[in-house]
From TrEMBL:
It comes from Prauserella flavalba. Residues 30-90 form the Aminoglycoside phosphotransferase domain. It comes from the Bacteria. It holds the Pfam family APH. This is Aminoglycoside phosphotransferase domain-containing protein. The lineage of its organism: Bacteria, Bacillati, Actinomycetota, Actinomycetes, Pseudonocardiales. SUPFAM superfamilies: Protein kinase-like (PK-like) (SSF56112).
């Protein structure tokens, strides 16, 4: 299947994201990942980078951790199960997970592309991420954080 056909299928599959929410709409961070939580030695954890806060499907906030588990193997089986059990649902079992995961991975790739100048580390990383998204690299993927 060509790249264009895969993206067209993703767009069609993405309709499920709007038609079948994982749960009722809730307040969501919009950029939930481990790097956006500051855990002080004393006191409560603090969420950072809140410019995308809104109300929506919690799958958008749950997807990054599930993607770290499913596509990057950066979360252990035990930690992912503990997270899912504590939340009360496993977003991997939601039919809309793969489109949400793919859109998230595309966003992360676009961010690195915005840093690429043709010669730097961001350029090499962007090329690698694009190869992953095209299916040229098998999962689990290894991406460098930017």
């Amino acid at each position: 299947m060509s790249g264009l056909a895969r993206w067209r299928r993703l767009a069609l599959d993405g309709r499920h994201v709007m038609q079948e929410p994982a749960r009722d709409p809730v307040a969501e961070v919009g950029d939930a990942w481990q790097g956006n939580v500051a855990v002080p030695e004393y006191g409560e954890p603090v969420l950072l980078d809140l410019e995308q806060v809104g109300v929506g499907d919690p799958a958008w906030d749950l997807a990054p951790l599930a993607v770290d588990y499913a596509d990057f193997s950066r979360v252990s089986d035990d930690d992912y199960r503990a997270f899912s059990d504590a939340y009360g649902a496993d977003v991997l079992r939601w039919t809309g997970f793969r489109p949400v995961a793919t859109v998230s991975e595309l966003r992360w790739t676009a961010f690195v592309l915005s840093k690429a100048d043709g010669t730097n580390d961001a350029t090499r990383e962007a090329r690698h991420r694009l190869a992953c998204l095209r299916g040229e690299v098998e999962r689990p993927w290894s991406w460098t954080a930017f």
